[in-house]
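User: Please predict the structure of the protein below. I'd like the answer in structure-token form so I can feed it into my own downstream comparison script.

Assistant: Understood. Taking the following sequence of 382 residues as input:
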Amino acid sequence: MENFEFYVPTRIVFGKKTEEKIGEILKKDGIKKVLFVYGRESIKKIGLYNRVVNSLKEAGIEFVEHSGVKSNPVLSHTKEGIKKAKENQVSAILAVGGGSAIDEGKTIAVGAKTEKDIWKFFKREEVIEDALPIYTILTLAATGSEMNGFAVITNEETKEKLNISSIYIFPRVSILNPELTYTVSSQYQAYASVDVIAHIIEYYFTCKVCPNLSNRISESLIKTVMETTETILKDPRNYNARAEFMWASTLALNGLTRTGVGGGLFPNHLIAHALGGIYDLPHGACLSIVIPAWMQWYKDENKPQFERFAKEIFGVSSAEEGIKALTDWFKKIGAPVSLKEVNISENEIPNIAENGYNIAKVQGIENIYSKEVIEEILKKAL
């Protein structure tokens, strides 16, 4: 194992009706006023909006609403939230929703504490030095943003989809009630499942030092995601399946699977962000298209891990069989596995690759993921 530091300061409040505790939690933390960040109508349709508002009012917490977060949160709307947070002098961010609401909330938390252009933090031109406290109530398990220090935003003008990373944007408290995910559609459940698996396999396949313990944690999480997904698609109100999926999703990207691992990159997310930034496709759909192609391209670079994956997850022996089995599983749950399924043709690949290369430059890995390499991978996704 490599040396490592593991830091997760987020308090998790997990279980039924836990969203009703939000007012009490904020009050105990000395929070007086929050910016209430959420999407559109879904939290109102399931009654969550009223429960949150009632809890805030009962605890005497003032709130300013910032609604309308898109499924791929955009820079312009985020800047509006930063302006609201500053003008209303809020003392914390309360993000209610999936990863999109949480990521926009995190970015607002950073922007509220600086006069610098928020996009410069995504371009790695500025370093995050502070942020407002962040509280979350999760309604879609997928991104793991409820227990990590990452956030992703799309600049709709430049079509760049970039991330920030900082200890300052770990949520202080995240509330996870699996019941709140009962209404997630089968399509978005499929995309969520792909996203969670992607978070795990990025380091699993690109590691240079791959400890057995980390491998086993990763494999257990992948198996749990696959098993619970199949149950959820048949029985959307199965509490135990929703609960295990939700917790697996959180653990997949809170740093646990990376402990002791040497090396490791996030290439599938890089290419998926390039794709999603241009076409505004669901993130999970972009990943299910990219992953099989990338696996075919990369498999000989870490053959033992690919063979281990094939055996441990699917009970087959070769890397090729493992790739096919994962691709077939994506198809089984209803996720696209080719560019043609989302009406993207070969002549559009150079533009996507250029966008991906620009992201690679921001991340400092353009020597590995050149425009030509990204084009080569995308052609395997046709």
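That's the full token string. The longest strand covers residues 92-97.
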